Structures are given as structure tokens and as C-alpha cells.
Amino acid sequence: MSGGSGPPAVRNWSLPEQYNLSDHELRKVEQRAERRWALKQEYQRILFNPYNSIKAEGGTPFDPAIQRFTSTRADYYHYFKPNRKNFTVFACVYLIPVATWCWYIHRKAFAFDQKVRRGEIPWRYRMKTI
């Protein structure tokens, strides 16, 4: 295997050379990588177990870390603080396009109404041009 995929033993790059780590920090990084890889393997083993559907335990396994992440993303409103950047994004994504679209439709409807009032559009074509 090449790159950083797979268990920590098959990586073809060196952490101490790349990040200038001490031996103690290197051991901690390797332990975390091994733990993360083992947890990933366990999660995949539970997730892809074909006998879960027989035991009516289908679906995804409960993972507290994923639950915390999902809950944090769902409750982001509580951490929202209005500022200029937020308002600018809101204005550019919602206010300006909606206001522009309303102005365009109003202008088009007003021009059509004026043409109808002046008699430029015959009666039989009035409903087709809106």
C-alpha cells in the first residue's frame, strides 16, 4: 500500500522527519493511529455484519463520537453569533437574489400591463405572453 492508508505499520513516510517529533510524541502519535485504526476496523466489522439483519439489529451501530458530532451540527443555532460576515453571506445568498427576482418580475408585469392598456397586444395573445 502507498500513502497514509492502511494500518500504521505499512506507511511509507516517516513522522519524525516530516514533523520533527520527539520519541515520546512519536509514540503517542503512533498509539493514537493504532487505536484509531482498530476502532475503524471494529466499526466496519459491526456495520457490515451480514447477520445483523437476521437478529433484527440492522442499521448503523451506535458510536458516541458520531452522535456528538451530529448533535453539535444540529444545535449549531445556539452557538450562532451575528456579525458582518454572516449578514453579508445572508444578503448575497438570499436577500439580493430574491429582491432582484421580485424587481425583474414586477418590471416585466408592469411593461406587459402597459402594452395591454395601450392595445399593443391583441386580446387572443394576452394569456399566452404572461
Content of β-strand: under 5%
- The residue fraction in helices comes out at 55-70%
What's the SSE pattern? HHHH
Biggest sheet: strands, sense, closure?
Answer: none
Overall morphology: elongated
The overall number of domains is 2
Low-confidence runs of at least 5 consecutive residues: none
> What is the count of β-strands?
0
Helices and strands: which structural class?
mainly alpha
Number of helical runs?
Answer: 4
Distance between the termini: 63 Å
Provide mean pLDDT, rounded: 82
* Whole-angstrom Rg: 30 Å
Describe the structure.
The protein is mainly α and 130 residues long. The chain has 2 domains: 1-80, no CATH class; 81-130. The chain has 4 helices and no strands. The protein has helices at residues 15-19, 23-47, 64-74, 84-118. The longest helix has 35 residues, at 84-118. The radius of gyration is 30 Å and the shape is elongated.
Give a short summary of the structure.
This protein has 130 residues and is mainly α. The protein has helices at 15-19, 23-47, 64-74, 84-118.
Please specify the SSE layout and strand pairing:
Blueprint: H1 15-19, H2 23-47, H3 64-74, H4 84-118
Family: Belongs to the complex I NDUFB4 subunit family.
Subcellular location: Mitochondrion inner membrane
Protein name: NADH dehydrogenase [ubiquinone] 1 beta subcomplex subunit 4
